[in-house]
Amino acid sequence: MSFVTRKKKIEMFDYVNYTLLAVISLICVFPFLYVFSVSFTDPESYVPLEFYIFPEKWSLSAYKYILSTDSFLNALKSTAFITIVGTVLNLVVSFSLAYALTKKQMPGRGLMLIGVIFTLVFSAGIVPSYLLIKQLGMLNSYSALIWPALTNAWSLLVIKSFMESLPAELEDAAKIDGCSDVGVFLRIVIPLSLPAIAAFTLFFAVSHWNTYFNALIYISDSKKWTLQVLIKTLVIDSDTIGVGQSGGDDRLVPQETIRMASIMLAMGPILIVYPFLQKHFAKGVMLGSVKG
């Protein structure tokens, strides 16, 4: 096979591959365009069961209405609190414990590693977890969504592997200068781990922001619902926040526009934050990988 023929086949493969990927991307993007368009569609021009790529007439009526409801604001506050507090605690626990596990001289290190790996393979299940949360008195509280998720085996092992790849000479030099283990961790390890911290901040924040199943099981007070639970209830039962009542401009707000606006508000913060952490996210994917 000549070089020209091989080159043409490669170009043809690239053309077909790019075309296929473009079609798949469009299929994935269209639902988001529909949600975005319906949420900004004016109530007077909205036509049910009609596909929108761009609104015929733009309006913020749905957003004004849903942001004026107590149920959505309560869910937003609950989710923001869980995300901020949970992410901070996740970072503190995960990085401090992972650093401790890198020290071979630490008593009980092997047993702790076995325990971490054991949880990676086996899980107690829903019923024992619920009974434990109930026995600890954390039902119907934010603690049930934060404390059981302080860290996880995958995060610990990846962060541990990343820290083990840091130059040991830096720690030795710091200890020679009189720095304690805590000082080495705060002054040497943490500054060198900023890409890992940025990546896992995104991982933990997205996980807490999307909290649904645990909130559905452990939280019975509607005032403490997370956004995901509220949206699920809203999509199934449109009367959750009084959909269909008149908004601030004395016009009826269609149920569908309210639902789509709530979905956009739930996705918005993550979509806004992600581009700023994308560079660190790409690095975070390679954390703990084997270097050749």
Could you describe the 3D structure shown?
The structure is a single chain. The chain has helices spanning 3-39, 61-66, 70-101, 109-121, 126-135, 143-146, 153-164, 168-176, 181-192, 194-209, 213-218, 227-236, 255-285. It has two domains: 3-67 and 242-285, no CATH class; 70-222, MetI-like fold (Orthogonal Bundle), CATH 1.10.3720. Helices cover 68% and strands 0% of the residues. The chain is an all-alpha fold. It is found in: Cell membrane. Belongs to the binding-protein-dependent transport system permease family.
SSE inventory with pairings:
Layout: H1 3-39, H2 61-66, H3 70-101, H4 109-121, H5 126-135, H6 143-146, H7 153-164, H8 168-176, H9 181-192, H10 194-209, H11 213-218, H12 227-236, H13 255-285
Helix pairs in contact: 1-13, 3-7, 3-10, 4-7, 8-9, 10-13, 12-13
Task: Write a concise keyword list for the protein shown above.
single chain; 292 residues; mainly alpha; MetI-like fold; 2 domains; 13 helices; 0% strand
Quick take:
The chain is mostly helical and 292 residues long.
Report the strand count. 0
For the sheet with most strands, the description reads: none
Principal-axes shape call: globular
Low-confidence stretches: 242-250
Instruction: Figure out the total of helices.
Output: 13
Which strand-content bin applies to the residues? under 5%
CATH C-level category of the largest domain: Mainly Alpha
Strand-pairing-aware structural class? mainly alpha
CATH architecture verdict of the largest domain:
Orthogonal Bundle
Radius of gyration: 25 Å
CATH homology superfamily of the largest domain? MetI-like
Instruction: Fill in the CATH topology of the largest domain.
Output: MetI-like fold
Q: What is the chain-wise order of helices and strands?
A: HHHHHHHHHHHHH
| Mean of pLDDT | 83
| Spatial separation of the terminal alpha carbons | 34 Å
Helicity range: 55-70%
Please, how many domains? 2
